Amino acid sequence: MSDLRYRTAGESHGPALLAIVEGVPAGLRLEASAIDADLARRQGGFGRSRRQALERDRVRILSGLKRGRTLGSPIALLVGNADDSIDRLPNLRAPRPGHADLAGCLKYGTRDVRAVLERSSARETVARVAAGAVARALLRKFAVEVFGYVLSIGAVRAAPRRVPAWGGGPLESEGLSRLGEARAARDASPFASLDPGAAVGMRREVEAAARQGDTVGGLFEVVALGVPPGLGSFATGEGRIDGRLARALMSIPAVKGVEIGLGFAAARMRGSRVHDPILRRDGGGWGGWARDGNRAGGVEGGVSNGEAVLVRAAMKPLPTLRRGLPSVNLETRAPERGTFQRSDVCAVPAASVVGEAAVAFEIARAFLEKFGGDSISEVSAARRAYLESLGSV
Ligand code: EPS
Fold it and tell me: In a mutational test of the pocket of ligand 1, which residue from 79, 344, 346, 353 has the highest number of ligand atoms less than 8 Å from its CB?
């Protein structure tokens, strides 16, 4: 058994994006169609660029499977680019404020912005979503579901009453039906939002930015349901699952802030209003342990506590603006507007899919740390024995 991890490769306009996922136990059923469904959601959302109409992101699973089941060996995933024009594209000289362009040119000692943007482009998140879909298949096998959705676009927020009170404990029929309803609402929304009433305002926000050659950001939330208590560790800083989730989300291009549970709001409140009372609930929760409320967002002391894991991320407006922002030509040193060829006006719905993949991967990693084995049956046995033991604590 090895640590669950992945690595990506690929440029925005190179031949393909790739992910290699290591440490998936043998015997897991994995279907390309499940990965493709997540890739398609990542391509969607109102406010995307023409690039998404050009691409039809579909995965080829190159290794690690036999007859649809994992072998325990590395799983190589490939998504081809329809626009693979990297070698024909001209060099670019005007770095975009807010993108990796200038810092990247300084770091690599080049005046060619394209040499930097090809890899720093958010197109790389195709590979993250593919890797995350493998993690989701593993989690689903063990009744853990991860769900991402948009809370706001620019200044327009979904109504709070539209956001369900996600329950803790094992994911059973009631939780699954609530999740099914939420999924249907989200997938019907061009903003991946649960509040159809907010769509008009969200659309106006994106259209106004588009007219002005500008961009908009927003907030998304990712919920993980059915996560057993005990994932992560308080014993080391790196083991803390909240830190790991924050890192995974913060590493998504354009994400500038992450909150868990109440997050920043907790800083204004008294402890007595923040912490979730502990309950015994016969036949409920995990071995009868449950909580009254989930302001902690499912994590205490760097360890999952059995409630829904709730994380939110703030995405800044994308730095590629049609009207261009003040910059300098790296050759002539003369002022010039930042490079623009094409870009999304808003990619928050896509970011919520990438966030879902990031959270799924981290939770799956922590899950296998606790219950890991070489095969799915070993993992099942370890999980079952642990869950049975919780009632006697
Ligand atoms: C993206 C593809 C890119 C950008 C976008 C994300 O395609 P192109 O550069 O050919 O237009 O649209 O990249 C960024 C938002 C970024 O900041 O780099 C994609 O597939 O998600």
Answer: 344
Q: What is the CATH number of the domain that holds 231?
A: 3.60.150.10
Dihedral sign for Cα 69, 73, 76, 77, please. positive
Is pTM beyond 0.85 here? yes
Q: Which atom of ligand 1 is nearest to the CA of 319?
A: 17
Q: How far is the CA of 123 from the centre of ligand 1 (A)?
A: 5
Pairing state of beta strands 16-22 and 5-9? antiparallel
- State pLDDT tens for residues 359-390: 999 999 999 999 999 999 999 999 999 999 99
Domain count, the chain: 1
By C-alpha distance, which of 171, 105, 178, 184 is closest to 141?
A: 171
Place of tokens 């016969």: 282
pLDDT digits (tens, 9 = 90+) for 43-57: 999 999 999 999 999
User: Domain range holding 80?
Assistant: 5-392
Ligand 1 site, CB within 6 A: 12, 49, 51, 83, 121-123, 253, 318, 320, 342-344, 347
Residue nearest to atom 12 of ligand 1 (CA): 343
